Amino acid sequence: MSDTEEIRNTIQIYFDCMYESSAEKAHAAFHPSAKITGYTPGGFVEMSVSDFAGFVAANPSAKEAGEPAYLDILSLEISGQTAVARVRDDYLGSRYLDTLSFINTDSRWCIYNKLFHIEGAAGG
User: Which tens digit of pLDDT belongs to each residue from 88-110?
Assistant: First the structure.
């Protein structure tokens, strides 16, 4: 599998963790030291991977509710053992623009940092 395919697979696992409310998939997609950071209507948010995994697991599964899945990989740039992807996805009724930085460590691509921006309502 090429680096691009491996990173796209990690992005899918990342999206599935939210869509399926899977803490296990969150841990599979992220490096253990990763940070998840951005702004919600409540203000600035910064989470560890464990915090994020607990957050997604505590929310209802959009997949089980039959909600449509929306994930669009807008860009992906690989530079050696690092990469950056911008993705747009729907989660918990909002449309997000995520900037995901990746590191290739222990022969796998994982997300090292997630910056998120809420663009508006899901499906918009």
Answer: 999 999 999 999 999 999 899 99
